[in-house]
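Researcher: Sequence recovery benchmark, item below. Answer with residues only.
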């Protein structure tokens, strides 16, 4: 009986270990610049599931963003945490992060090329990971939200894009005509970093391009409402109620677009 008990415990331990989320570095180059993204999924099941490119906030593809991807992925998605800064750049503070995104905002074509390369890397991983290549989307947070929108504006073949407290401005509103998928923007109603003029410009951009989009204002929320590890009051504050609602909306939106 004791031996059987130990055997059962060992089996249970192995099962738990086997169900641990995979976090696999995915390394590639654009020209001479190396990038290290991370593929995240639960390998307890071999069933294919949608693939998402996740564009992190301005701190980039760091350990915190990988943990967030694990929580989002669960058993539902395979997520590639996209590195758009390069392997050697992982900002350690706001000044470094600000400098990193400013450089990319100066030439959005570079940003679009980098996030498209991440999408290509996600698709390539389908040879080993349980990715359903018929169901591909993108999500992004803050600067990452702008990055995800730029992926869509580039004409990338993604079914749906969801952003959380994103910068909505575009360097070329005509690019919106290339958007192929459905867009869901989740915004804090009291977000001072996303002014009313920027929202109006974005909505006009989407309407002029005939994009299937939704814009949702979450009451009482400011910037960073979905970022529990990013707190800089009063403008950047986690809001659990808004975050929970936003993630439910994200899942419903993706389920709808992937069902088509």
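Model:
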């Amino acid at each position: 009986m004791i031996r059987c008990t130990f055997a059962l415990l060992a089996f249970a331990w192995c099962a738990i270990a086997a169900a641990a989320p995979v976090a696999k570095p995915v390394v590639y180059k654009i020209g001479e610049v190396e990038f290290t993204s991370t593929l995240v999924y639960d390998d307890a099941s071999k069933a294919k599931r949608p693939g998402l490119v996740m564009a992190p906030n301005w701190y980039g593809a760091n350990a915190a963003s990988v943990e967030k991807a694990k929580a989002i992925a669960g058993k539902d998605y395979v997520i590639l945490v996209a590195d758009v800064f390069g392997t050697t750049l992982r900002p350690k503070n706001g000044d470094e992060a600000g400098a990193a995104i400013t450089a990319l905002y100066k030439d959005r074509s570079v940003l679009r090329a980098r996030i498209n390369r991440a999408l290509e890397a996600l698709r390539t991983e389908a040879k080993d990971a349980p990715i359903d290549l018929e169901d591909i989307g993108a999500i992004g947070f803050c600067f990452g939200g702008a990055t995800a929108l730029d992926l869509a504006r580039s004409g990338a073949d993604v079914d749906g894009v969801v952003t959380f407290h994103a910068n909505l401005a575009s360097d070329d509103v005509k690019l919106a005509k290339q958007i192929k998928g459905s867009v869901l923007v989740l915004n804090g109603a009291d977000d001072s970093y996303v002014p009313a003029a920027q929202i109006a410009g974005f909505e006009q951009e989407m309407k002029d391009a005939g994009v299937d989009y939704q814009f949702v204002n979450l009451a009482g929320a400011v910037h960073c409402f979905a970022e529990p590890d990013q707190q800089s009051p009063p403008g950047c504050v986690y809001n659990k109620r808004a975050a929970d609602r936003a993630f439910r909306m994200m899942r419903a939106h993706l389920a709808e677009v992937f069902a088509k």
